[in-house]
Amino acid sequence: MTETPSPGPDVFARYLERTRWFGGKGRPFSIAGVRRIGELPRTADDPRVVVDLVEVGYDDDQGGTEVYQVPLSLYTDPEPRLDHAFVGWWEEPAYGWVHAYDALHDREAMALWLRAFDRAAREPGGNLNDESGLRFHRIGEHELDLETHSTLFSGEQSNSSVAFGEDALMKVFRKITPGVNPDISVHDVLTRAGSEHIASLYGWLDWVDEGADEGQGTTLQLAMLQQFLRTASDGWDLALASVRNLYAEADLHAYEAGGDFAAEAERLGVALREVHDVLAEHFPVDRLDAAAVAGLADDMDTRLDQALPVVPELAAHADALRAAYDRLRGLRDVAVQQVHGDLHLGQTLRTSLGWKIVDFEGEPAKPLAERLRPDSPWRDVAGMLRSFDYAPHVVERQFADDHPDNAEQRAYRAEEWAHRNRNHFLTAYAGGELSDDQRALLEAYVADKAVYETVYETRNRPAWVAIPLEAVARIGAP
Ligand SMILES: Nc1ncnc2c1ncn2[C@@H]1O[C@H](COP(=O)(O)OP(=O)(O)O)[C@@H](O)[C@H]1O
Ligand SMILES: O=P(O)(O)O[C@H]1O[C@H](CO)[C@@H](O[C@H]2O[C@H](CO)[C@@H](O)[C@H](O)[C@H]2O)[C@H](O)[C@H]1O
């Protein structure tokens, strides 16, 4: 990476370590370079807002590099209102000393993004190619509300999302991989197809690295603008509330309790089926031959091989897991297509107009080529089934401290809740009973997802690893 007129690398290293979205926390790293790729169009009254790409090199056995996007607001004087987002101060050759803040926290700066997207809608083809190299693209007819203020989401996110009032949401991608970002390309297709189960795409921002790919140029997709789902409630939070309700009256069956979730699970099944159908219409669908089906099972085997050293408790269940993958090996007529790739209840939102599915980026830890590869839709179904298993266990962890009695009754209710919602979701998705082959395919994907979760929990929430481990233990059990 080429150097830019910026501070020493330590300034960015210190800032990355403080953020939620930096994926390399806990690993030894250094800043390999900082590159200034563009500046937002502005008037003389606006702050200077620049987009820097920070290349991080890892100094551990795994090694490798990653690139993170850090948009900055640059002010000549300190801005105390932005103290919490202070990155550093340094001298820039053309401007002198500047105080730099993470621009996502700065309303004055975010207004520049919104204005540029608004201008793009009035340019030929909906494209605004700013002279600094940033390219704003718009689709659809939505008129942006320029009077709104921006609010940065505070949730546990791998990217950064900013809401413009209740009108639009902009997701700024933090880890940048050259090429197509499936969150944009899939939303683009689903929006143009009129899917009712997503937030419509309004536009996106990209930049072409002219010097990359032997002078051919490579596109880097930097941000996505979409419909703000104003009446949304998070599917995971709703499921937890339903379980809490049930535990509070543990003498009732799941279907008798006030917060029964089954009708929602059913609607979610229908929504996922509709999204898969639209994706199958607009992206290629491949019917796999025997070798390719065996390849899917091989990938699951490899994932287990890689998980074993991280989660040694898996060893006791490895034979049962491999037997589930072997049953997949024997299947014929397996189709693959564009899927969500990382579906769980936390990626679903209940709005007054029904369920919406968000975040089509795939599993963030997977390389882009793997995330773009067609996969079986049963991977998404399996993700949801695992989530229905997680919810009662997570509530039990919260409940157990305050209510140590009655744990056995709750465990019974937990299984009843998970079973009921899995069944309603699955039957609605499949439109009836599953065939033996579909069941074998689904079981393999559920096993694969549970193995992935044991690794995810060991690394991120070790206290939760028992949840997927219990699921793994059930695989192959009579
Ligand atoms: N269009 C939307 N309208 C309102 N809230 C949204 C919308 N899309 C996502 N969200 C909320 O923002 C959170 C983060 O979005 P997500 O796409 O999962 O980000 P990330 O890629 O950083 O994980 C979601 O859990 C959801 O609650
Ligand atoms: O949302 P992400 O793309 O970051 O997905 C990762 O984190 C999820 C947790 O937030 C994780 O999901 C696992 O925990 C959920 C409860 O918190 C549960 O509903 C899911 O079923 C379970 O897989 C996901 O696996 C991981 O990729």
From TrEMBL:
InterPro entries: Kinase-like_dom_sf, Mak_N_cap. Transmembrane segments: none annotated. GO terms for molecular function: ATP binding; kinase activity. Residues 15-106 form the Maltokinase N-terminal cap domain. It catalyses: D-maltose + ATP = alpha-maltose 1-phosphate + ADP + H(+). Keywords: ATP-binding, Carbohydrate metabolism, Glycogen biosynthesis, Glycogen metabolism, Kinase, Nucleotide-binding, Transferase. SUPFAM superfamilies: Protein kinase-like (PK-like). Its EC number is 2.7.1.175. One of its GO terms (biological process) is glycogen biosynthetic process. Pathway: Glycan biosynthesis; glycogen biosynthesis. Belongs to the aminoglycoside phosphotransferase family. Monomer. This is Maltokinase.
